[in-house]
Q: What sequence folds into this?
């Protein structure tokens, strides 16, 4: 049987996602909003020298970043696309990599617990 064609709008509704060239099932969490969680993580990391835009994505978490030449110094910009089915672990590890703090395991555990505190 051939795989179905991928349509971004149907991924969330149908309960499947196209990842790593294969359809994989995933569970939906009615209370979990991946983009809202990414915003919380960014606020907790307080990246003062970054301008970050978060938007709807179709492939987990994808980050593009670069130097903000208009502001000079160490200022940077970043765009973060977050798919509705992105896991908390994907969001946290990607944003920690953006912050340059990916090697801090206690920080990973703390950020993963952010949603449980609300």
A:
């Amino acid at each position: 049987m051939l795989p179905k064609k991928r349509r971004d709008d149907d991924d969330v509704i149908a309960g499947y996602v196209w990842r790593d060239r294969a359809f994989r099932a995933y569970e939906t969490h009615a209370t979990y909003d991946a983009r809202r969680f990414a915003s919380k993580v960014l606020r907790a990391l307080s990246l003062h020298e970054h301008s970050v835009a978060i938007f709807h994505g179709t492939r987990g978490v994808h980050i593009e970043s670069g130097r903000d030449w208009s502001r000079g110094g160490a200022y940077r910009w970043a765009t973060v696309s977050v798919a509705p089915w992105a896991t908390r672990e994907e969001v946290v590890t990607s944003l920690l990599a953006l912050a340059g703090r990916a090697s801090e395991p206690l920080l990973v555990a703390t950020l993963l617990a952010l949603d449980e505190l609300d």
In short: The longest strand covers residues 50-56. The beta strands are 16-19, 22-25, 50-56, 61-67, 76-82. Residues 34-45 form the longest helix (12 residues).
